[in-house]
Design a protein that fits this description.
By secondary structure, this protein is of the alpha+beta class. It contains 13 helices and 26 strands. Strand 11 and strand 12 (272-274) form a beta hairpin.
């Protein structure tokens, strides 16, 4: 069985020991090459007594080493006999919030470090809030530098109680607390004899055993198409990575936006065909039917269709020095699909220190808030809380192609788009009117009214003699049916009126609807 992969990030206040903890994990798990260790030993200008500064294994930028802080996100890779790991060492300074959010966005687990001497600080709360906002389901609270407080259990318990209450308040998952000394390695890889009162696991043991993929595996199957493979006339396959769930050969699927159903005939990989494909696995799907599918389309389980809408709400982390401006057009990149969209409004800005919602007209660099978006074409998505891949998007500047912000969808606004049978309200939104039967006895006047309404975009026709089921027919096709004889009790009599007056009469009777009403009727179309 292949080893699983765990992505985790570190977060916490400045100088809580994030980089030192990662350096200790790498060092004690034999994940450091000798030349790297020699380089770090030579650069350990901040150490005393000849002790190697393990933080330098991740603080690779010159400015970071000079200041003794983390600025950029540093990724490190190591493995044990039980699991592979990707570590994101993220900065603690508030001005680098966007870097912290970037590192945590793909993490399965977050390690929140707290300096035992200082207790819970605002930056510790801020990073825990952001990690929870980004949907991280597993938290480890590493109470570091316990050696500097003589391994005082009362200090550990006080921090445990305070931070547990804070996590409960923000709705974060239940956390695992570990007292440790990252510098000396106590409770990092092996349990320390200095904490006989601690009954939990060492950090590495917990990282090796935590179930990281349980949420993606149990979520509905989602497969964003990245590329269409057509090497010859006999093969057509759709390449991509399983965002969530599981697909099996023979399973019925639905292709979006085509809304066509088909069955999976083959699941192809470099190493041969598979019986099933699971979350995070890169495969090629072959379908029984030839469907118009291209990059950006989504293949989903036929019995678990995602939300379909053009208007939705999202939490947004703004990452650019130029503020987010409501009303401006941006590119919205969602999975492998990119559409134009407009930020309709900033609903509020979140004060991540006080957890209060603050009114705001725009979002500045590193600020987090809720926004409302309208895209030019429908998106097929899940709420971020249920699927971190199909519920996330990035905002791109259409001129510079620069990534400006990251969003996490929290809900739809207005009516959600419904595919399949076309409803009467959808026809009304498309044509700008409701179905009706109109009587105009003079044929010339009838055709003049038809031309006027047709030029306005109406679905209209002159029929002459009214059939018995005139109104039912008009309702089925969403049209205005103009008859010249055979009046029915449901017909609107406009005989003898000039074309302009007839149009006004239709407006007064609510047959012709305003643009505002069209938006309400046709939300999401």
């Amino acid at each position: 069985m292949a080893m699983t992969l765990l992505r985790f990030s570190t977060a916490g206040s400045v100088d809580d020991g994030k980089s030192t903890l990662i350096g200790r994990l790498l060092y004690d798990s034999k994940g450091v090459y000798e030349d790297q260790l020699a380089s770090v030993a030579k650069a350990s200008v901040n150490s005393s007594g000849g002790v190697i500064d393990l933080a330098l294994l991740t603080d690779g930028l010159r400015a970071e080493r000079e200041q003794g802080i983390t600025i950029d996100v540093a990724y490190r890779y190591f493995s044990t006999p039980k699991r592979k790991f990707i570590i994101a060492d993220t900065p603690g300074h508030e001005q680098y919030t966007r870097n912290m959010a970037t590192g945590a966005s793909t993490a399965h687990l977050a390690i929140i470090l707290i300096d035992a001497r200082n207790g819970v600080l605002p930056q510790s709360r801020r990073h825990a809030f952001i990690a929870n906002l980004l949907g991280i389901q597993h938290f480890v609270v590493a109470i570091n530098k316990m050696d500097l407080v003589e391994w005082d259990r009362d200090i550990y318990e006080k921090i445990h109680v305070e931070f547990t209450e804070f996590l409960r308040k923000i709705g974060a998952p239940k956390a695992v607390f570990i007292p440790m000394s990252a510098r000396d390695g106590d409770n990092v890889v092996d349990l320390s004899p200095k904490t006989p009162w601690f009954t939990g696991k060492a950090l590495l043991d917990h990282l090796e055993t935590v179930n990281a993929d349980e949420d993606l595996a149990s979520a509905p199957a989602r497969f964003p198409v990245q590329y269409v493979l057509r090497p010859d006339l006999d093969f057509r396959g759709y390449a991509g990575q399983m965002a969530s769930g599981t697909f099996r050969a023979g399973e019925e699927v639905l292709a979006l936006p085509a809304r066509r159903r088909s069955k999976i005939t083959r699941i192809v990989t470099w190493n041969g065909d598979l019986d099933s494909a699971y979350a995070q696995q890169s495969v090629v799907l072959c379908l029984a039917d030839e469907i118009d599918i291209s990059r950006g389309d989504l293949i989903v389980a036929a019995d678990a269709v995602p939300h379909v809408a053009r208007r939705f709400r999202a939490n947004c982390v703004w990452m650019n020095a130029t503020a987010l401006e409501p009303g401006r057009s941006y590119f919205i990149k969602h999975t492998s699909h990119q559409v134009r969209g407009v930020i309709r409004s900033v609903n509020f800005r979140m004060d991540v220190n006080s957890l209060e919602r603050v009114g705001a007209a725009r979002l500045q660099l590193n600020e987090i808030g809720e926004i409302s978006i309208q895209t030019h074409h429908p998106l097929y998505f899940d709420h971020y809380a249920k699927n971190r891949i199909t519920g996330a998007f990035i905002i791109i500047d259409p001129l510079s192609n620069e990534t400006l912000g990251a969003g996490m969808i929290t809900g739809t606004e207005g009516k959600e788009e419904v595919r399949g049978q076309v409803s009467e309200s959808e026809r009304a939104a498309r044509f700008g009117h409701k179905p009706a039967v109109v009587l105009v006895e003079d044929s010339e006047s009838a055709y003049l009214l038809e031309r006027e309404l047709f030029d306005r975009g109406a679905n209209v026709a002159v029929m002459g003699v009214a059939p018995a089921n005139a109104l039912s027919l008009a309702a089925v096709v969403g049209m205005i049916l103009i008859i010249t004889s055979g009046a029915t009790t449901t017909a609107i009599d406009l005989s003898g009126l000039a074309t302009h007056d007839a149009v006004q009469q239709l407006e007064r009777r609510g047959v012709l609807i305003s643009q505002e009403e069209q938006l309400i009727e046709g939300e999401g179309i």
